[in-house]
Structure formats: C-alpha cells, structure tokens
Design a protein that fits this description.
The chain is α+β, with helices and mostly antiparallel strands. The protein has a 6-stranded antiparallel β-sheet. Strand 13 and strand 14 form a beta hairpin. Helix 10 packs across helix 11, helix 14 packs across helix 17 and helix 16 crosses helix 17. The protein starts with a helix and ends in a 5-residue tail after the last helix.
C-alpha cells in the first residue's frame, strides 16, 4: 500500500516483515511503501462500515484486555524476514542449449502458438478474460530489500499463462455440425484434419476434442470416415497399445465404430494434448526455419517413443510430419498409434521390417523440415534437387541425417542413433530435469493452499450465530466477540472518508498472520469506536480454535 492508504486503513500490522506482509506492498496503488518506523507510529482505528449497526458491549472480557482509543503505542513483535529463494528457469529456456549460429532457436511459425516473451500463447482457441486470468503480478516497486514482491509467492508467470491457455483450450467447445454425443463422449469440437500416409493411398483423419461421460476428462477422437476395421477381431489389436506408455506418445485408450456421423466411421480415442498441433501445420506448411538444437531434441524424443513401441513388439507405421504433435513447450508426441494395426496397413511385412520403416520415417521427417529452406538443397546434374543439411549444421548432424536416410548403411538401429547424438542426450535430459524442477517448485507454492479457506469457514461458523438450540448471545460474548471484532477489522475496514477498503493484500496478510499465530499485536475497535482490544494474532487464533471445538463438541446442546 502507499503511505496514505496505509494510514487510512489504520494498520499497525504493516511493521512486520513477514512473507504475508510482502503481499500488502503489492497493492494496486503502486506507490512507494511506507518505512517501518513510520508505520509503527500509525494509529490503529476500526469503525463500522454501516452506521445503522448497533454496537454490542464487550461482555465476559477481562478488564486487562480493554484499552482506550488513546492507548500508548503498541509494542510490535520482532520482524520475520523470509529467505529469498532463486526463481526457477522458465519453460522457454528448457531446450535453448546447443543452438547453431545462423538459425533461430524459436520457430517463427511456432511463435504463433508458443510462449512468447511475455509468456502468452498467441493463438488461443477462443477469447479469454485477460483482465482476470492474465494480469501480471507486480515485481519490486521500490520497497525495502527485506520485503519480497507478490510474484515471489505465486506460480511462475509463464507457466501459469500456459496452464490457463491449456485449461481454456480443453474446456472450450467450438460451433460445428457434429453430433451431440458419440459413443460415451459429448461436447464434440473439431480440431485438426490431417492425411495419414501408411498405405498406397492417404487416409483422411479428423481429430475431434470430446469429453467423456465416464470420467469427465477430455480426449482426442481420431475419426476415419468410410472405413471399417480389417476384420472383426481387428479392433482387439488396440488393446496392445493401451499398455504402451511413454512421455512422447499420446496414449491410446479405445477404438470403436459408429454411425453417429451419418456414415461408417472408425474412431480411435487418444490422449488430448491441448495447444499442440502437427509438425506439418506449424513448420512444413508455414516454411519455418528451425535450429539444429530443436532438430536434435525432435530426433531424441521420437527415438525415445519408438524405443518404447518397439520394445512392446509393435510398430507405428504411420510416422510422418502429419502425425507428430508439437506443443508450446517443444514437447513432441506420436499421435496416430494403433491405426495401422486396426486397418492392417502392414500387409505382408514382418514386424522387423515395419520397425525399420519407423526409423526410416524419422529421416523422412527431417527431410520434410529441412526442405522448408532453400539453403538445404543441392542440385545434382540430371536429377531433382536433393535435401542435405546446409553449411550451418554440425558434422554430427549431417552424419545423423545421412544415417537415417540410408546413405551410410541399409539398417538403422536406435543404439547407433544415440551414439551419434553423443552428449546431446544429456542436454535433453537436463532440460527434462529443469522442467521437472520448475513444476515441483511451483507445486510447492500450492501446498496447503486451502488453509485460509478453512480458517474463514471456522470464523463464519462462529460469528453472529443465532441458533434456537443454543444461547442466542453465545456468539456475542466472551472470546467469540473478539473473533467478531477481528472479522470486522479484516473485512469491514473503511477509510477516513467512510469508504470501504477492499484490499486483498490486507485480507491475505492478516489471515496469514492469524493462521501462523503471530505474536504481533493488533488493536481491534468496536463499531461505536468507544472501546478497543489490544490482542495478538496468537490469542485470536486460540479463541477461534476453542470456540470452534466448543461448537462441534458432541455434548453441545
């Protein structure tokens, strides 16, 4: 708060330097915070926001606790200064290492759907209340160094923005002519439409976001029109994919046929990855320039997913830029697993040949991405131009590209790819660990985030209670009256002009001190301003706990 607003709100609690008090400095006034010495001299004054209210007398209270409004200055408790902790690295720094000179680390086409410099995902699925969800918490604004800013106690700003966008994308439903319900899914909303190349002809696949009736979660329905399973038992092949779990695979849940769309459609249910779109739409079609660091990360994530699939005795067979999803945080996901097994696209190929085809498809993906730049083409006399990594790429990447495209050996092995990647595997591993640390650090901030709600519930169970089965004046006597005065001090504060002071910082700060049982003292004044109580937050907390236990006691009548 500003110095003027602090005096108007009559807060002696402002002299403490606790973690909760740092929130008070983040008031919307934006003015410089008052010094501790000046705040200690500010008188405390509370009066009713409603002049029609008749004040209740102080009952059953020890005389030693009663003081006049002109009492001597309060002796404040020693200040508590929280320890400054380093902020975790941001999401957009997770995979920023290992870049190549001359290549942009952030994809131009990806910027339209990724976290920008302000942490905002640019291309949202619908309107979002920016004032409510995306308001940035203030940082240091000239307050003393021992007072931490409000954003120190909140979730990381860029992470919060990404999560808000993802939540909005999962809950929004676009207008369409899709049926109201398909199988056990409702609230259908069209997403992306891609062509899957796994046979002699492309397969058109419509991706639809839907919500399950069974568990309420959102899923991605992959609909293939005019197609039926290869046999009656082909749908059972999807059961093998249910057990395949990898961080780089959109998990498969079930497959079924339906006529709800007006035709014979095959639907495969996958895990929904909000805000993620195919590599074709984000890079290839947009002719985006990418960095070598991004391509190494892409290859390693794909190889990790294929290693899991091949270890389960399966093969993707539909790997392409159309079936690979890219998220705003550069996470890569295989998105059409199980389709080839249901439609029996492998034909007469054995499993070893199909798995070799998956590894070869990784090289085709790199060729499609590099083909977006004219620098990666070389002309061969009498032949069409060939895609080759340009001069800006390292010799290791050029060797990897040649290996995946069978220019070094006819057989591709995952172990050989990891050998070529070398120390870049540790770069990817470090990025994953930093992201895990970022999430854990922010999750730690949300531990016991419902404690203030529990405290408010207890206070409201007690104050101004008028039950016929109890003493009608129970809430107005003894320690319960003290709780009522504290409630007025926190929520019914008014300034010298009689206007209500709706300061969230004041509320959160005082509730935090009450929950912690701070020995800091505060002056609570009755609504008629004729008497006041000088008590500590610790005493108020004891009163709340004792009154609540008395209220819920089984012998209470």
């Amino acid at each position: 708060m500003s110095s003027s607003s602090t005096g108007q709100c009559h807060s002696t609690a402002a002299a403490a330097h606790s973690a909760s008090e740092s929130l008070i400095t983040a008031d919307n006034s934006g003015n410089k915070a008052q010094s501790p010495a000046l705040r200690a001299q500010t008188p405390v004054k509370l009066r009713a926001s409603s002049p029609a209210f008749k004040p209740s007398p102080i009952k059953n209270r020890k005389p030693s606790s009663v003081a006049s409004a002109s009492s001597s200055q309060l002796r404040l408790a020693p200040a508590f200064t929280p320890r400054q902790q380093p902020r975790p690295r941001q999401l957009d720094e997770q995979r920023a290492e290992g870049g190549t000179k001359g290549h942009a680390q952030v994809l131009p086409a990806f910027e339209s759907m990724s976290v920008g410099s302000d942490g905002c995902v640019e291309r949202p699925p619908g309107p979002i209340n920016e004032e409510f969800f995306m308001k940035t918490l203030p940082a240091h604004t000239g307050q003393p160094p021992y007072m931490l800013p409000a954003n120190h106690f909140a979730v990381d700003e860029q992470l919060r923005r990404v999560l808000v966008r993802e939540t909005h994308a999962m809950s929004s439903v676009g207008e369409s002519d899709l049926p109201a319900q398909v199988h056990s899914y409702h609230s259908l909303s069209p997403q992306e439409m891609v062509d899957v190349f796994g046979a002699s002809f492309p397969i058109r696949q419509h991706q639809i976001k839907a919500q399950s009736i069974a568990d309420g979660r959102c899923y991605s329905l992959h609909r293939i029109t005019g197609t039926q399973p290869a046999s009656k038992s082909a749908l059972g092949a999807i059961d093998k994919w249910k057990a395949v779990q990898s961080p780089s695979i959109a998990q498969v849940y079930e497959a079924f046929t339906t006529r709800a769309f007006g035709d014979n459609s095959l639907v495969i249910v996958h895990e929904l990855k909000p805000l993620a779109a195919s590599l074709r739409s984000q890079i290839v079609d947009a002719r985006a320039q990418v960095s070598e660091a991004f391509l190494w990360s892409l290859v390693l994530q794909l190889i990790s997913a294929l290693r899991t699939v091949h270890s389960a005795g399966l093969a993707v067979q539909t790997l392409s830029v159309s079936t690979i999803l890219l998220s705003p945080t550069n996470r890569v996901y295989l998105n059409s697993c199980g389709l080839a097994d249901v439609l029996a696209l492998r034909g007469s190929l054995n499993m070893d040949a199909a798995q070799q085809g998956d590894l070869q498809a990784v090289g085709h993906v790199l060729s499609a991405i590099l083909g977006t730049s004219a620098e990666n083409y070389i002309a061969v006399q009498g032949q069409a131009p060939v895609v080759v990594p340009g001069a800006g790429f390292s010799p290791d990447f050029k060797e990897l590209f040649g290996y995946l495209n069978h220019r070094l050996t006819p057989v591709v092995a995952i172990d050989d790819i990891l050998r070529l990647a070398g120390s870049r595997v540790f770069v990817e591993l470090d990025a994953a660990r930093r992201e895990s640390d970022l999430l854990c650090d922010n999750l730690r901030l949300e531990l016991s985030n419902g404690r203030l709600v529990r405290l408010l519930c207890k206070m409201n169970f007690i104050t101004e209670r008028a039950d016929s089965v109890m003493d009608p004046e129970w809430a107005e006597t003894g320690d319960r009256y003290l709780i009522k005065l504290f409630r007025d001090y926190v929520f019914h504060l008014v300034n010298e002009a009689g206007k209500p002071v709706a300061s969230m910082a004041h509320v959160v700060g005082n509730l935090n001190k009450l929950d912690a049982g701070s020995p800091e003292k505060v002056m609570l004044m009755s609504r008629d301003e004729k008497s006041c109580l000088v008590v500590s937050y610790e005493e108020v907390k004891r009163c709340v706990e004792e009154a609540y236990q008395e209220l819920v006691a089984p012998t209470r009548r």
